[in-house]
Each structure stands twice: as structure tokens, then as C-alpha cells.
Specification:
The chain has 308 residues and is mainly beta. It is built from five helices and 22 strands.
Length: 308
């Protein structure tokens, strides 16, 4: 069974947590930042700044401490910290409002990520069209929104501070003897079958999913897309439909121990053919460790555009 260890970097020194009482390690395809909640008996006084986590000696998390609390009672001292991975630097900082002319990934990286010390592991996609970064967009959003026109997976940041897109090519074989529970769900309550949008007049333009319409889903949204260039508009509309239906087929499988799996990996387990990993949540307490693996099954939307 995989073993987790944690190194806390304080303002003046660093130490490995020896007496861990509880931890929760969360990773999700929908969340740019991984997160760790850690409770332990402290051996160092001071302000915790950073946290690193290792699984069987391999660094799997590197991040900044957002919250630190220390409790003291008749049982002694306990410390709790909450940390997010270094992707929080991209999430917490607002991007500069720029209308890029014929942009590429490298130019967006240089403006939005390089100043924070990140490394670029992304393909240098480019377009001859304009790309607008709107008010309130984070540095993460500025890069990820552009990349979403070329990739169907979200931008991630490795523990080595490299930006990359997960390959999703590594299968994860679930050991049947480790399985605690399995749940499969069909969620029809969130899927949007049609988006009515306008560019300069009324809502006469439509983006629809024939697949959802065939499943008797009748749910529409109204959007004003006039501020976006045409290519960016199409990407945004398609992403809206996909996000609304991404949990149409979902599943959860809970296993004993720390699941050494990767996001977007296909799961090999009877009854879960075609499902891939979208989140991993590992919890350790006095009963040991277990991991909840969240899954989705891709649904072909068969999208169409029309004017009426």
C-alpha cells in the first residue's frame, strides 16, 4: 500500500510531519489547484509557508499554505494546515486585459505564467484570429481558455511547476480486493440541450445538441456573445454545452488505501467500461486510508449550429 509523507516549510526551517493524525488529499479535473488538509502534532513553532507531499518517495504535491491553526488542550498540541498547489498563483492573480493579435500559447505563457517562475510544457498552438482576455479573468483562465480551443482537457500544473495538458493515456486497473463500494448515476437535471445567443441583434443564433434532444432533454440558455471573436465564440458555446452534460453518466468507486492514479485515466473494472477519472479524494484517519475515485463517461453531443 502506498505511503504518504509530508514536509512543512516554516519561515525559518522545514520538517517532516512525524505524527500525522488526519489528512485529505484532493485532486479534480474541474479544479486547477490540488488541495491538502493536514492535521498533525507539531514539532516546530512558527508560521508555515509551504507544503510538499510525497507518495512512496515521489513528490506528488507542492503548494502554499493558505490556513494554519494550532490547538492546545489537555491532550497536547495539534496543528492543522490547508494548502493549495502552486497553480494557486495563476488562479489568484488577475490577468492583464489584452486583445492579442495572432496569439500563440508561448505568448500567453510569457505574459501570464513566466513571471511566477513556471515552466512551459505546453504545445505552442496558435491562431491568426484575435484573442481577447476579459476583465476579471485569472492568469490561469487567460491561458486555459485559449488552449480549450485545441484541447479537450484542462490545463494542469505539475509539482515541478510545469504547465501541461494531461495525456489521459495511462489506464488505471482497480484491484477488486481493494474495492469498498461502487455507485453509478445518470444526471439529467443539468444538461443544456440548446444555447440561444446573439451577436448583434436578437437571439436568432443557436447551438444545440442533437444527442440531448433525442434523450428528451429540453433546456435552453440565453447568451450575449457579441464581445467575443467568432472562433472564440464557437469554442465558448461548445464548452458550455459540454460542461452542462459532463456528469450525465457518472460513477464513484471507493477503494482502500492511496490510489496511485492519474486524472483522465481510463478505469479498468467490470461494469465501468468507458469511464475515466475526474477526481481523486484520499482521506486518512485512525481507521486508515481510503480513496474515492470519481468518474465520468463521455457523451457524444452531436452539436449543430443554425439560425432561426
Amino acid at each position: 500500500m502506498a505511503e504518504m509523507t509530508f514536509v512543512i516549510i516554516y519561515e525559518n526551517e522545514k520538517t517532516e510531519a512525524q505524527d500525522v493524525l488526519y489528512y485529505e488529499w484532493s485532486r479534480a479535473a474541474d479544479a486547477p489547484c490540488d488541495a491538502i488538509r493536514l492535521s498533525y502534532i507539531p514539532s516546530v513553532q512558527g508560521e508555515a509557508r509551504k507544503l510538499k507531499a510525497y507518495c512512496d518517495g515521489e513528490c506528488v504535491f507542492s503548494g502554499f499554505v493558505d490556513m494554519q491553526s494550532r490547538y492546545s488542550d489537555e491532550k497536547g498540541e495539534r496543528e492543522f494546515i490547508y494548502a493549495r498547489s502552486t497553480a494557486c498563483l495563476l488562479v489568484d492573480n488577475e490577468a492583464e486585459l489584452i486583445n492579442y493579435k495572432a496569439p500563440c500559447v508561448n505568448s500567453l505563457f510569457t505574459v501570464n505564467a513566466k513571471p511566477f517562475g513556471f515552466k512551459n510544457g505546453l504545445n505552442n498552438y496558435s491562431t491568426t484570429a484575435d484573442y481577447s482576455v476579459l476583465k476579471g479573468t485569472s492568469c490561469y483562465g487567460a491561458i486555459n481558455t485559449f488552449i480549450s480551443a485545441f484541447e479537450d482537457k484542462a490545463l494542469r500544473v505539475s509539482p515541478e511547476n510545469e504547465l501541461y495538458i494531461p495525456s489521459g493515456k495511462v489506464d488505471y486497473c482497480v484491484d477488486p480486493d481493494s474495492v469498498i463500494s461502487v455507485k453509478k448515476s445518470v444526471n439529467r437535471g443539468s444538461a443544456v440541450s440548446r444555447i440561444d445567443y446573439k451577436t448583434d441583434g436578437g437571439y436568432s443564433h443557436h447551438r444545440a445538441s442533437r444527442e440531448l434532444e433525442n434523450k428528451s432533454i429540453v433546456r435552453s440558455r440565453k447568451m450575449n456573445m457579441s464581445s467575443l471573436p467568432e472562433w472564440q465564440r464557437k469554442t465558448a458555446l461548445s464548452n458550455m454545452l459540454k460542461r452542462s452534460a459532463e456528469d450525465y453518466y457518472s460513477a464513484e468507486i471507493t477503494v482502500e488505501g492511496v490510489a496511485a492514479a492519474q486524472l483522465y485515466s481510463s478505469v479498468i473494472y467490470d461494469g465501468l467500461e468507458g469511464y475515466y477519472i475526474t477526481a481523486l479524494d484520499t482521506v486518512f484517519n485512525n481507521n486508515g486510508a481510503k480513496t474515492k475515485i470519481s468518474l465520468r463517461k463521455e457523451l457524444s453531443l452531436r452539436e449543430v449550429d443554425y439560425v432561426a
